[in-house]
Amino acid sequence: MSREYGEIRAILPHGPQMVLLDRVEWLDPGRALRAVKAISGGEPCYQRLPAGLPRRGYAYPRSLILESFGQAAAVLWHSLTGRLADQDSLLMFAAARSCRFEGHAYPGEVLRHEVALERCVADTAFATGSTWVGERRIASMGSLIAVVRTRPE
């Protein structure tokens, strides 16, 4: 089972500028998935960078790698519950534990997130996994925690 971009947009409560997934390539509902995100030099994080920086100057921000992984985990969580957030609730990134970055990704490369859902307790989900560029692992996520909470009035 896979998910295309339009389906991902319908699942995630993020606006279109903040959806950091392009496709779910493989999904075992409620258990695991593999999702991809193509990095483009036209993304907002590169807009204010000057031309001619050394390669490392164009490394995709680690915070966005973490957010993209978290969105993949949210799609996986949705496959278990059938819902995430609505007008009365908020999906929130709560914490990341034992995350290690081992490399960088650059414009023109594709992030591949391999995510496993560890467990869900009430409106809290725990996921783990890794992010790859080709055969190179660039990040491992020990535990990512997301919550759904009632939207304050």
Search tags:
153 residues, alpha+beta, Thiol Ester Dehydrase, Chain A, 6-stranded antiparallel β-sheet, 2 helices, 6 strands, lyase, FabA_FabZ
Task: Kindly report the name of the CATH homologous superfamily.
Answer: Hotdog Thioesterase
Largest sheet: 6 strands, antiparallel
Helicity, as a percent range = 10-25%
The count of domains is 1
Could you spell the SSE succession in H and E letters? HEEHEEEE
Strand content: 35-45%
Task: Enter the CATH topology name.
Answer: Thiol Ester Dehydrase, Chain A
In one word, what is the shape?
A: globular
Model regions low in confidence, pLDDT < 50 over at least 5 residues = none
Give a count of the beta strands, DSSP E runs of length 2 or more: 6
- Residue-averaged pLDDT: 92
Task: List the topology elements.
Blueprint: H1 5-11, E1 23-28, E2 32-38, H2 62-81, E3 89-101, E4 110-121, E5 124-133, E6 136-150
Antiparallel strand pairs: 1-2, 2-4, 3-6, 4-5, 5-6
Give a verbal description of the structure.
Helices cover 18% and strands 41% of the residues. The radius of gyration is 15 Å and the shape is globular. The model has no long low-confidence stretch (mean pLDDT 92). With 153 residues, it is an alpha+beta fold. It has a 6-stranded antiparallel sheet, with helices on one face. The chain has one domain: Roll (Thiol Ester Dehydrase, Chain A), CATH 3.10.129.10. The protein has 2 helices and 6 strands, in the order αββαββββ.
Describe this structure in a few short sentences.
This protein is α+β, with helices and mostly antiparallel strands and 153 residues long. It is built from two helices and six strands, in the order H-E-E-H-E-E-E-E.
